[in-house]
Write a structure and sequence with these properties.
196 residues; mainly alpha; two-stranded antiparallel sheet; two-stranded parallel sheet; 9 helices; 4 strands; globular
Amino acid sequence: MVKRVFDIVVSATALLLLLPLFLILGAAVAVSTPGGAFFRQVRVGKGGKEFRLLKFRTMRPGSEAQGQITVGGKDPRITGIGYFLRKSKMDELPQLINVVLGDMSIVGPRPEVPKYVALYTKEQREVLSVRPGITSAASIAYMDENEILGKSTDPDRTYIEEVMPAKLALDLEYVQRRSFVRDLSIIGRTAIGLFR
């Protein structure tokens, strides 16, 4: 209950304070290329329930049909402003709306697309026992994930065989030892990581 109240208060306050920035970024994305300001993608949340995750759109329309993995600056589908938004992580800001709606938490395992959740083992599916988050210990450890995949000759295979299992191991450890104090620590480490 404390975590949910914290999520609502922090995310709602952040949305109010960041409203001018939202309007500026949304307008910049919308006028840069056709397709609107937001990108909505089906992700798997708590209990295996699917929801639509919100982001500022960083890729050209129709890009998802070419694959759901991006490979950093090398990916030609990413727009000019999209590269800046991804680098600064500001493309994630609309997920504050997902937090208010109850789809997500501020801290928790990052929600995955159904294609990859279908590959989870029974043990790995334990990450679906909690609300997914905007940030997590795994997100911090793999802040350069796109660059790692960009160096691979087969990004999808590298993600499935190397990156995803490593991130899930960190997420499972979080689920088993989660606490409000730990959430605050992850939020602080995320903030530091954004400015490194």
